[in-house]
Amino acid sequence: MLTGEQIRAARALSRTEQSELARLSGLSLETIKRLERIRGPVNANARTLRAIHDAFEGLGVQFDGDDAGNIGVLRRLSEARLTETSARPPDTAYAPRLHRLVYQSHIAHSGAESLRPTLAYINAEAGILHASLGLTGIIYVHEGRILQALEGDRDAVHQAYRAISCYPQHRDLRLIEDRPTAQRQFSGFSFCCGMFPEDFARLHGEQTLQGGFNLADLTPGAASDLLGVARDLQQAPPRKTRGNPGACTLASACLDSTCGRARMAPSHHDAPQAH
């Protein structure tokens, strides 16, 4: 059983708009509005109820109740259930809808600070986010600019993007691609940053890297190609010996002005979490 009051409360608890709930559940906006107007148990079929349950579960919200008629809404405070959900075999009636999202942003920072501690946080936090939601993809960072691909179940991809967009360190987020896809481009999660002399032969004078990673005119196809090159760079010298970007052993050779040649680095403990 699910009531209109529970749906409204769950939206308030997760700070989700009606239009966003409709998108996450795959239901129409009018259906969401109709169900929320109902007082008491909603009049809906099992498929509709399951879609709403799954949408809120992806947002960390669960419905509660007992035989005495008491009802409630709970919000999870840990990632444990998310990990459990991502590991659960998919229901054939609700098979994951494979989706790809690519966005661009830049990291807010002082020009006098090295981005290495911040990059280390991004790498670690993004790895956790990808693992907990069953996502694959890559983050490519150059001159403080970020190009990231997220692949996986549609709802999980959009949940991850909402989480990313909430952090103030990301400035001027711009969606490049947001669509269903037939297959994944990446087999796991990887992180590529900086610029080294050896890269130029592989990048072949890539125009999007001129003038500080200018992606204003980057098409989805060009973004996919660039991220594919970044994935390959991770497996080639010198990056394959780089290690954690926060303690990069190649920093002195890096041509990226926000990382290798920055004048000073902030305290590791003061570095903000970007994901």
Automatic annotation (TrEMBL):
GO terms for molecular function: blue light photoreceptor activity; DNA binding; FAD binding. Pfam families: BLUF (PF04940). Residues 98-192 form the BLUF domain. This is Transcriptional regulator with XRE-family HTH domain. The lineage of its organism: Bacteria, Pseudomonadati, Pseudomonadota, Alphaproteobacteria, Caulobacterales.
